[in-house]
Structures are given as C-alpha cells and as structure tokens.
C-alpha cells in the first residue's frame, strides 16, 4: 500500500502544477496501481458519513439500496473507463486546457467560477460533518435535517476553527494535501468497517436475512425528504460523481495513465467508498433510529438529526470522533485546493496561497449553514447536473467531429475566446431540463443524462452551422 500511496501522491502533485498546457510526456506515465490507491482513498471520506444515513431518511428498501447501489456504481465505473480514461490517454490534457481549446478562454473563465463556487459549497458541507464530531465532547446541540441556519455560538466557533485549519493546510499546496489524505485514508476505511460491524452487533443481526430486514420493503420518507425508489438509487449513485466522469473532470488525473484500462481502478472507490461505506454509515443511523431520542423526534412528526459525529461515537467511541473529523478533513482539503485553482484561473495575479485562503473562507461560511450537508443528496445531484454537460462537449467532439465535419478544438484554431456553440448548447439543454424538473417535480438526477446527451448533440449541430472554415 505504501508504494501505491507514493505513486498516487506523484500523480496528484503533478496534476496540480505541471503539464497544465502540454500533453503529459511518456516518461511521467503511471501504472494502474497508482490510481487504485488514489480512488480507494478519495471515495471513502466525509461525504460517505452523510450519504449513507440520508438514504434511510428517503425510505429506501433493502433491494433498492443494495442492488441499486451495485448497478449504479457499476455504471459510474463504466463511464470512467470508456469515456474519461479513453479520452484522457488519447489527448493527455487537463480538463481546463481541453475546454479552453474548444470553448475559448473567456467562456472557460465562467466555467471555472461555477466550478470553484460549487467546490466551496461541497467543502463547506464536509466542514459541517467534522464539526458534528468535534462538538460531541462539548455536548453541542446537533443540526437537524430541516436546519438551515447555525444553531448556536458553539457551532459557529467550532466551524470557524475547523475551516481555518483546513484552509491553511490546503493553502500549503497539493503536496501537503495529498500526503495528509494518504496517511488518513486507510484509517478512515478501517473506521467504516468497524462502524458497520459494531452497528450490526448493536442491531442484533446474525444472518443475511436479518441484515436485509433492516431496510425491508422500505418505509415512508422522513418529513421534508422525498421517497427514493430503485431507480432513484441507481441513477443518483451513477451520477454522484457525474462532474468527474461524464463531466470529464478526471481527465486531469487519467492523463497520467499508461492505458485506458486504468479506468477500471475507479471500482476501488465505488465499491469501498460508495458501497461498503454508504451501507456502513446507513447501519449507524439505523442503530440511532431505535433510540428513545430518535423515536421522540418521529413521534412529534420531525426527522431525527443526521449527525455523523455522534453516530460514529456511539459505535466505536473516540476512534469514531477522530475518524469523522479526518473523513471531513480529507474531502474538504483537496476540494478547497481545487476551488482555489479554479479561482486562480480567473485572477491569475493573486498567489495560490491567497486564492486558496479565499476559497477556504467561502467554504467555512458555507459550513456554518447545515443545509448544505443535510441536503447533500440534492446538492450533489445539482452539482453534477450543472457541470456534466460541459463534459459532453468534449466527448461528442472527440468521437464525432469527423463524422459531422467540424473543426476539432475550434477556439484554438480560430483564435476565438468565446465559442458560441458551447454556450448555446449548454444553456438550452440546462434550461430546458431544469424547467422540466421543476415544472413536473422530476428528480434532478433523472434528467442529468438527457441534458448531457442533448448538450453534446446541440454542440455538434451549432458547430456545423457556426464554425467558419
């Protein structure tokens, strides 16, 4: 594992600072083992402590959760393997430079701004997760599922302190961030396994049938939550990382792969983090739901709070608190760093240190408001819905530019700083399907794929008519 971690560090360090505007040279390519360690660590982190319990609040059944996650995560792996990794090893460029060559510098600036802000909100939700653990020794009131505002001064102080520490570490650069993550990730994975085993014991589970009965045929969703069916679980888990695979963000990672087959290593992240860890976290919440406190909330028509800190502490004690803090930390740190890079592309004269501090400050402010964490299922769906269509631009150009007779990397060839075809394709597809989602109350993840497909097709059509030969 140590060699895998060292190679993963190399990739992440290089991805943060070298070959940003040139293809990765052959001498810098890495084996599949590097990506295995990276994805296993990155996807067993703070978000998992929130997402698992939130599935229970949505009233999923055993079949919907266990089989739905199995299929949805497989679709995510296939997307990484046959789209992201395939294109990455052909071009060996970062997402940002690839988009700039197609869209033009001015349009990419808008993408960077949106990307940076969404990264900050995601990091803020992870600061919230860590705060629920730090607050346990102080007997701090935990935020409820319905809370949007800070619930007290203790909460505010803890969030600000955590945000300041995380921001300072992220500002020291990706080398520090990746080293911290690689040291912490094995501990977090062990904590998830321990939490799952202890929770099964606390629930009195001694057979697979009893394990299945925890979810049974499903229940009504908690107040303020929507009902998740089999297809909700499949589609949501497929697109939980839509921005990374069909959105092409991980071109920046897989450009270092020797072969596209390295895309299969994402299965380590999906089935360690997005399968085992989600189910383990859901088991922690199942234990809590049997407590008098949770039953009191339910009898009053309120949803019991989802606070990862107390849930993990109830299962494995102080180790649980440490694991939740570190899990939030390992997600927030690289996320704030990436947000800083996105902002730096907009304000290049400001140093990396200070743009990262700015990003950390925005994330900390977001962390004060529990809604970002408590509505994480919805936020992740929105995040993917906004950013994934930009990946369709790259995918459809890569595979179909010859068939449609359009110029590849048009902005680079024409000297354009603003490719109208890209903006029109994204705006029409986004606007149409967001309207459909809101008007007909359709789960946002259900329209992510149609939006992605329409954006790619419209890009080809507009390019055919608007490109000047």
Order of helices and strands: HHHHHHHHHHHHHHHHHHHHH
Please report the first level of CATH classification, the CATH class.
Mainly Alpha
Low-confidence runs? 1-17
Major sheet size, sense and barrel closure: none
Per DSSP E runs of 2 or more residues, the count of β-strands stands at 0
Give a brief description.
With 469 residues, this protein is mainly α.
Note down, in words, how this protein is organized.
- The protein contains 21 helices and no strands.
- Helix 6 crosses helix 14.
- The protein is mainly alpha-helical.
- The longest helix has 30 residues.
- The N terminus is likely disordered.
- 72% of the residues lie in helices and 0% in strands.
- It has a single domain, classed as Hydantoin permease (Orthogonal Bundle), CATH 1.10.4160.
- This is Purine-cytosine permease.
- It comes from Winogradskyella echinorum.
- Keywords: Membrane, Transmembrane, Transmembrane helix.
Features:
single chain, 469 residues, mainly alpha, Hydantoin permease, 0% strand, disordered N terminus
Give the topology.
Elements: H1 2-17, H2 32-42, H3 46-57, H4 62-91, H5 95-103, H6 105-134, H7 153-171, H8 174-202, H9 208-213, H10 230-239, H11 251-254, H12 266-289, H13 292-299, H14 308-316, H15 318-346, H16 352-367, H17 371-374, H18 376-404, H19 410-414, H20 420-439, H21 448-466
Transmembrane segments: 65-89, 110-133, 153-171, 183-208, 228-247, 268-291, 311-332, 353-373, 379-400, 421-436, 442-462
Keywords: Membrane, Transmembrane, Transmembrane helix
Protein name: Purine-cytosine permease
